[in-house]
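Thread amino acids onto this structure.
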């Protein structure tokens, strides 16, 4: 009797494990977007621009941080007005801003907060951004979307971010 009960428990635990693995299989995973190596050399100074002084100072500090994205890049975010945050990807080898986040994201909502987060890893080309976009946005096929809290997955190719998956929250 005890062995039937144990076998039944093992069966259901295994089924639950498999279900959880397959339920998340369609969401992009960082390990599927690996880079070959992480740059360990001297970081270039941030390339000066005639833009906003706050952004210029932030870039100077950010470029000195350890590589945190796609092998030799640093993701940097800063307030950009209207209760929103904007982000950029800086190349530590050249000091240049390679690209900006595709949108600004609210950090101040009706209740004083907004569900914003950006997730990235030094050894992956995958960027995940969660929250409510401050400007109109489109889905993977280019269709207009209504405002909403979403989880977005972008692949970085060294020049631009390409939306590869979108999940409504």
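Threaded sequence (169 positions):
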């Amino acid at each position: 009797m005890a062995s039937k009960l144990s076998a039944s428990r093992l069966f259901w635990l295994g089924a639950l494990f498999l279900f959880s693995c397959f339920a998340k299989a369609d969401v992009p995973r960082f390990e599927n977007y690996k880079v070959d190596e992480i740059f360990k050399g001297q970081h270039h100074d941030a390339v000066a621009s005639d833009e906003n002084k706050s952004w210029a100072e932030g870039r100077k500090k950010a470029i000195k941080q350890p590589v945190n994205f796609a092998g030799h890049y640093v993701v940097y975010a800063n307030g950009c007005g209207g209760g929103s945050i904007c982000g950029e990807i800086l190349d530590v080898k050249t000091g240049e801003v390679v690209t900006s986040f595709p949108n600004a994201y609210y950090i101040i909502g009706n209740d004083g907060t907004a569900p914003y987060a950006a997730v990235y890893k030094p050894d992956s080309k995958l960027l995940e951004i969660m929250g409510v976009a401050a400007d109109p946005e489109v889905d993977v096929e280019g269709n207009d979307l209504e405002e909403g809290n979403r989880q977005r997955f972008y692949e970085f190719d060294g020049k631009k971010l390409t939306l590869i998956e979108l999940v409504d929250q």
